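pipeline/complex-builder :: batch 7 item 3
reading input block
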Amino acid sequence: MFKREYTDDELIRRVWDVEEIKKLVYKRGVYIANDWRARELDELWVREPEHQKTASFGKNIGWYVGMDNIRAWYDKKHGAGYMAFHPASTGLVELAGDGKTAKGLFYSIANETEANGDGTAKALWMPEKVAFDFIKEGGEWKIWHLVAAVDLVCEAGADYSGQDPYPNYESDPVMLEFGEPTVKELIHDGTFNWWDDYPSMPAPYETWSDEISYGPEGWKPPKGKHYGAKEGRNYK
Amino acid sequence: MSELSLHQRIVNAAASQEVENVKARHTYLHGRADATTEWDEIWCMDKNASWAHAFGRMRGGDQVWYGSVTQYDKMCFENWLNIFETYPEVGGKDPRPLMEASVHTLVTDVIEVARDGKSARGSFITPGVIHSRLTDDGKPYCNVLWERYGSDFVLVDGEWKYLHEHVCPDILTRMDCFDWAHGEYERLCDPNPVEGPPPTLGDPPPVTDPGPMHMPYSVLAKPRNTVPWPEPYETLDNDNTYTSLVD
Amino acid sequence: MYSTEQLTQRWEDQRAIKNLMGKYANIVLLNREQEAFSRFWSENEPTLAFNDGVYRGAEAVKAYYNACRDRNALVASLLQKRFPDRLGGQSSEEIYGIGPFKVMPMYCPIIEIAGDGETAKGLWYCQGAKNDVEACGPRARWTLGWFAVDFVREADGWKIWHMQYVNDVDGTCGQSWGREQTVYPDLPEFAPLADFAYPAYTEAKTVRVYYTPDRPVTEAPAIPQPYEHFADTFTYAV
């Protein structure tokens, strides 16, 4: 890839671009903790109509595409007993050479707790890899595409090794909450750990193309995906 | 210390971010057990390369490669051979990430870039998880592994590379189903105690500097300061490094 | 719009503040809390708040950290008495630090440096593991909470000015915080820890309510916003 040379002023402004992008991701963590879902969509996500059309929010089983669809699923308030932390760590941010977009990958040992209604609550750990595409609108960085690939879900205080080895995304509480996405596709199957490499690390790049998107337009099935979970037994 | 030019200050600011990215790439590559890419692309594998753990320190590119790539691959391939009969769907898939996702997250970073701009140093606390689903005993597992890192980086042909890593495992237990402190106390009080868990899993690779180079948390031990945070420094030397340098 | 040099200075300030909080976490981990005040704090009317109260003023904050040292020393002496075969024959200085292991990983720094460069604010999430010895013996706790900190620039660098360290969860590892937790019985060998008390707060008050299944959704400490002078923004002082 062509490697640009930057002036001192350009370089320090790029350094601050990366800092502002990380701050945007960290603010999202506070918004989640505060149950500010509508504010997250209004304040941290893209606003320009063209970007809103192609915005996407993915989890293991697919993506919601378009801010209207994202909002229809995501914009809800929780009641007493709700507590959620998705602290982003391990930030890896690549700012485009042209400075107009950026890509980021983070890991979160997240937890969410909801009241059961009987004086107890269900507290879940849900470690996840979270990838973002960012775009600058009017001088401010905004979230354009987001994929949260959950590795496993287990209850606090419970022995995870008691679970079935195969994740069941039809009964998994995180995926049940995710509902019916616009584009249905198993994009991260925890059965095989990180074999599917999705979402993958961002590479340095010069300018945006849909091919590198963390939205559905950029997804490619992993090589060797001949057999999914529980398959491959017919040779007998 | 000398006054830095504005240009050098800006270069150092960018360098600090770049080593954060190198460190993060390590985490994501290690999570896929892709040791080949990690040591091929983000390391400076010369005679000063070193990778240390509780069991000791590997020194020099050849020894680091053998311990961190060859031996690691061996574990992955052995694991694949142990599971493919039970889980034939692993056929055709890269055996390395199928072993486990070993995810050492990066937080609490203290980063200093040398005033000469040729090296950078960082200490980190890494709360991590290690998990896998298709295992030879048929049960998924998720371990909690909290460590500290001391890392040195060098600028090679305009790119930031790892030179030294010192990994300090502190807490290793199963995901949130134990009070490990209370458990260790009960073990210590048992008149016939079973042996405690080893500080590291698996057989250690060949090392130049034998361990123990760090000991994990114990009720009866002081927290070790094995990888002190870096202080501002002029250049990478034996007063400012996580591994003594060789000429 | 900031000049190239101002942007550079502000970036260095932000990096210094991240480093400062990383060092603070390490000092606590190493059971060297008694160094925290002189290393990291401003003497100028500091405040240190926890879930249930606040220390105000240099003497009160210093006294808290000195009490941490005293408690660490007490823990070590009780462990020495309990395990004379392993720890006997060592002086109190030699055994100091044995026992506690308090890890406070600092996540998600949201830092704002004042336009005038004299103060700064930062918010961190802290998903901690606090291994300590209590009256019931050694116990590992998850601590899920927040560091919210005002900083002030002094002649020798950035200093902590007002700090809130407040948790939502402070419960035993291996047990869900969504259910009633099993309480371990006190053990006679650690009974003196039940009598140990930190200095009384300057003001005892509820700063943050711990999580319970009927707690309303509770917002984090306020997110720092860009500001010019400290008088233009809110304070984390309690």
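note: Chain A touches chain C at residues 8-9, 12-13, 15-16, 19, 23, 25-27, 29-30, 33-35, 78-83, 85, 87-89, 109, 111, 113, 115-116, 119-123, 155-158 (CB under 8 Å).
queue -> next item
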